[in-house]
């Protein structure tokens, strides 16, 4: 028997080898598809894909798109105020509609407002007897309407020689912040004073002296007092009103003053009464209250009791608070330490007014020009510039408004010119009624200029 079974056919062995080589090659090529990209000499080799001709085409990816840049809103140019030549600008540091002078300006333009626009002017002897304020009030009321002098204390004192109204009183006991005894700051009203009646009857008669047209008559006489055990209030010829017992400030309003006079009587038979004053005003227009006090630097404005101020805010809203002080602090305002300490009191006062009168406008008025004698003659006191700078910084930090009284008077050295014209006293610190009239005209033009800027700004959409 032959041994053929042990010897394979050579043709069959050759075919098998070919198939094995092809299969191995195919497998290697398939594995090569999964190799990472290979680069030689900076050139990337093409990926091996033996199935590319028979594999279904992969769905094409949408082409990447670059998003359009966001549309830029047109940039508005910063608002630029315009002030007429010769008009002293009111620098407004308020940043929105609730700060600076915006609230006050908006109400001056509000034809639907059903109450007066009220200004509370806090100052020192610069405005004693309605100096400057009588004329400023007259100009504002001529432009925007309004009647009466506004606030009048229950007894004459600081304003006992007003150009506008005079008073006669009986039965009251006066307590003011400048009094050294029998004064309690926890009891004072917005004018930094209060008046007491232990029992019986007290009266205050007020009558115009005809110096200013719009202040010589008024539509309403309103009395403000506290009567813990109740009280009877009457105005001659206008009736009477019974106030119930209450620890809070109350008001009694009468249609009296059209003839330029009003006689108020307050009576109590049980307990005491603490009165603050009365308001002589019209139903609309502008009311300017003179809340000045002779001899004070202004520290005590911040001490007006919160409960009393809250009651007055409820009964008699205020729209612009003006703070003009410094005349009685010039001699001591020589160091930065004192000036910073001084400004801290006004920061407290501003915070208090804003707390009780939301949105109220605040205007800081820089100290007036004041002169002293030196070896070279009369010179403006160097403290004027220093204090004015601190007052302007105060306005900026508190987002209030600022105007320079020295600038309203005509700048440095203006007091000497006022004295030469007979517009100021020879102490070179206090103006008189003629000087006050000149300053009032300038002040009025500044308010008008500020209002015009406000109107144009709103029209332009700012």
From TrEMBL:
Question: Signal peptide span per the entry?
Answer: none
Q: Mind telling me which residue stretches traverse the membrane in this protein?
A: 18-36
Q: Which residues form the SGNH hydrolase-type esterase domain?
A: 276-419
Region Disordered: list its residue ranges.
59-81
Q: Which InterPro entries match?
A: SGNH_hydro, SGNH_hydro_sf
Single GO molecular-function term?
Answer: hydrolase activity, acting on ester bonds
Xref: SUPFAM superfamilies: SGNH hydrolase
Q: List the Gene3D superfamilies hit by this protein, alphabetically.
A: 2.60.120.1360, SGNH hydrolase (3.40.50.1110)
Q: Which UniProt keywords apply?
A: Membrane, Transmembrane, Transmembrane helix
What Pfam families has UniProt attached to this entry? Answer: Lipase_GDSL_2 (PF13472)
What name goes with this protein? SGNH hydrolase-type esterase domain-containing protein
